[in-house]
Amino acid sequence: MIFRTTRTTRPRPALRRVRTTPTPRPLRHRLDASRVEEIPLHAADGVRLGLTRVDPGDRGRPAVLLLHGHTASADMFLLPETRNLVDVLLDEGYEPWLLDWRGSCRLPYNETGRRYTYDDVALYDIPAAVSHIRERIGDRPLFAVAHCIGSLTLSLSMTAGLVPGLAGVVSQGVFLTPKLAGRTSLRMTVAGELLRTRIDHIPVDFRTVGLWSKYTPLFALASRGADCPDPTCQILHNSAWGTGASLFVHENLAEATHDRLAQLLGPAPLWILPHLRRIELARTVVRWHDGDHRYRALPANALDAAGRIDTPVLLLAGSENGLWLDSQKLCRDVLAHRRPELDVTYTEIPGYGHLDTFLGRGAALDVYGHILDFLGAHR
Ligand SMILES: [Zn+2]
After folding, report:
1. Ligand 1 midpoint to CA 190 (Å)
2. Residue 101: pLDDT band by 50, 70, 90 thresholds?
3. Mind listing the pLDDT tens digit for each residue in 111-150?
4. Of 345 and 268, which is predicted with more confidence?
5. Local structure of 272: helix, strand or coil
6. How far is it, in rounded angstroms, from Cα 122 to Cα 158?
7. How far is CA 374 from the centre of its chain?
8. If you measure from the C-alpha of residue 161 to the centroid of ligand 1, how many angstroms do you get, rounded to a whole number?
9. What is the CATH number for 357?
10. Which of 242, 270, 298 is the last residue of a domain?
11. What's the CA gap between 343 and 305, in Å, rounded?
């Protein structure tokens, strides 16, 4: 026998468990399951996304596409513990559609699997959802309500002309002119450089990483000066995944929401930081892929292409936004100066931070009325 198969009796080291199923994990809601239609949507580059339609029970309503922030998911609009945005839209005569784009914590790509940039979201995910919804609703109006990176990437899709003819857009937190607090910006750079070789994402659930792990220093840093003993809350509220920003006004969250933050927000991938950093330095949404012809449909600089915006835009922000500061007010001012022909308004929500504009226990009273007023004026 020339070739001999050698077998070792030593046990092989355990492989890291990687989630490979592209099926989104179940949504958490209190709707009648028969009203929730989950659509296996594939983006043009083959990535499986999540698209959910909530059946309002009658036809002919304007549709509203909801876009979550990075590491969140469609769950952020469906909180069972509060009167959520989907409840309000259904009651006010709209048909809600929820996209889980590839940065959703319901999907595996955020933590494992194929890496991406925000170019991919703007080029593939959002246009795929809009075109699918349009096929279903015909010529009924289609609005979009977008939070954080969902809104930032929507601005790139819009200025690329990839989602023309929306009836109106509500943008929360940040749109065309991203501006981060100085220390957030600095820490994003430092963390990115220091940690990139050792870890590829920052977890939020302390229970899954254990007391002693390579992440312990991050949690320890986030706990400094924190009033709340919950480590997940600390890393989000006190530190925004280690960046030093704050994601919400603490007392605006219901206790049930506070206690399940680790379900609502997933780990933050560090490999996205170079694109985010380039965007932040430019103070506008810029394309990452410059030499790759597949991305040439996207503008190199979304603000320079703002003339392609063909729909009214409502810019929303909490007065206490601890992540994007007054980016939305800045956006209104810049567009009023550079593109006075655009229909852009700005509304500030007193006493609100960033995520609590949707996750807050009083959001239906304090925030959603502004969204409904806007939708009602353009339906
Ligand atoms: Zn807390």
Report:
1. 26
2. very high
3. 776 789 999 999 999 999 999 999 999 999 999 999 999 9
4. 345
5. helix
6. 8
7. 21
8. 41
9. 3.40.50.1820
10. 270
11. 15
- 50 and 190 part of one domain: no
Distance 237 CA to ligand 1 centre (A): 7
Give me the pLDDT at residue 352, please.
Answer: 98
Given this model, what pLDDT does residue 12 score?
A: 53
The pTM of this model reads 0.91
Ligand 1: centre distance to CA 321 (Å): 17
Spacing, Cα 232 to ligand 1 middle (Å): 8
Name the token pair of 176: 């065309």
User: Under a CB-based contact definition with an 8 Å cutoff, are residues 247 and 354 in contact?
Assistant: yes
Kindly state whether residues 194 and 300 are assigned to the same domain: no
How far does residue 259's CA lie from ligand 1's centre (Å)? 8
Q: How far is the CA of 38 from the centre of ligand 1 (A)?
A: 32
Same domain as 299, residue 216: no
Q: Which residue has the tokens 């609502």?
A: 264
DSSP conformational letter for 190 = H
Do 48 and 42 contact (CB within 8 A), yes or no?
yes
pLDDT value at position 114?
Answer: 79
Q: What is the mean pLDDT of residues 2-18?
A: 48
The answer on 190 and 47 residing in a single domain is no
Judge if 157 and 299 occupy the same domain.
yes
Count up the domains in the chain and report the number. Answer: 2
In a domain, 23, yes or no: no
Higher pLDDT, residue 76 or 220 = 76
| Distance between Cα 228 and ligand 1 center (Å) | 4
| pLDDT at residue 244, rounded to an integer | 77
Q: Chain-wide mean pLDDT for the chain?
A: 89
Q: Provide the terminal-to-terminal Cα distance of the chain, rounded to the nearest Å.
A: 79
**Centre of ligand 1 from the C-alpha of residue 257, in Å:** 10
Which residue segment(s) compose the domain that 247 sits in? Answer: 182-270
**Of 207-221, 222-236, 323-337, minimum mean pLDDT range:** 207-221
Tokens of 317: 């922000």
Distance from the CA of 229 to the center of ligand 1, in angstroms?
7
Q: Is position 147 within any domain?
A: yes
Say if 8 falls within a structural domain.
Answer: no
